Amino acid sequence: MFTKSLKELSLSALCCACASVLLTACGGGGSTGSVDAAATQPTTAASSSGSTSNAAASTATGTSTTVNTADAAASGTTTTTTQAGTVVAVPFGQDASQYKLTFTEEFNNFDTSLWNDRIWYEAGNATKNYAVEDGVLKIWPQRDASGNFFNRTIDTDGKYYQTYGYFEMEAKLPKGKGTWPAFWLFNHIGDRRPEMDIMEAYAGGSGWGYTDGSGVSIPTTYAATVWKGDYEGQQVGFKMITEGTDLSAGFHKYAVKWEPNKQTYYFDGKEVLTVNTAMTDPMYLMLDLWFGSASGTPDNSTPQGKTNSYEVNYVRAWQFK
Ligand SMILES: [Ca+2]
């Protein structure tokens, strides 16, 4: 509950920030940055490398971890091959020699030992609006048995935490009024709620996207936000990022480099925000598709179903050497 109110408070601050921004029309249909990996991933490689990635997650020993080759092909420069011939993920745009891979989830299966499908303070929803298939986690807008759109959270609360390092996700966003996809590092420690929002998008909000010819809200802007979390509303960083691209049209890389006194946020390897702050708690990973806030209330213009998914090709983390 506390987090909920914190989140709501975060959003009012966000909306204030939003209002102060000149609402430029973003245009749409920009080029897509990377290949749709989902289309190219062989399902056969999936099951075998899935367990390998999970092993890497539970042992933070930095043992080389196999990445499925389709991911490597789709991502291009995000992998390297060791002398032993193992393909290892490297942080996009960074000096790979400075990092040790600690976590990789390629989404070749849904590993319940690593991921929860609801946030701790919610009961969850019986309507299943997520799946792992074609090497991708998909979470989609879907009305439940009561006819309501509902939040879905996939997180590693209680299962995987990391302090500092580099965290990267490759994802394609859903479209539609009310959609609010996000990638956070988060924790709830007593009353404290440290939170690093690497990506949050609000397709239906003014200044966050545009409405296409069919009346569907298209996301062209997202935000990175940092909440130190010692008390409610303790925001220490925020930026709306617009690259002139339809973020629902292709996969992009959203990342943060988290150092002891500094955080640097990246979009497709390009630095978009630096926050000089110290955050020292271990954080868990959170991928979610919520509804409302700056994105408005979802309605009949919001496309439902799997074909309008928040698609996550991978989530990876590294520690500094
Ligand atoms: Ca994948």
Automatic annotation (TrEMBL):
Question: Which Gene Ontology terms cover its molecular function?
Answer: hydrolase activity, hydrolyzing O-glycosyl compounds
Query: Source organism's superkingdom?
Result: Bacteria
Q: Tell me where the signal peptide lies.
A: 1-25
Q: Which UniProt keywords apply?
A: Signal
**Classification via InterPro entries:** Beta-glucanase-like, ConA-like_dom_sf, Glycosyl_Hydrlase_16
Q: Which GO terms describe its biological process?
A: carbohydrate metabolic process
Q: Start and end of every GH16 domain?
A: 81-321
The record's section on Pfam families has: Glyco_hydro_16
Look up keyword 4Fe-4S and say if it applies: no
Per the similarity annotation, which family is this? Belongs to the glycosyl hydrolase 16 family.
Protein name, entry field: Beta-glucanase, GH16 family
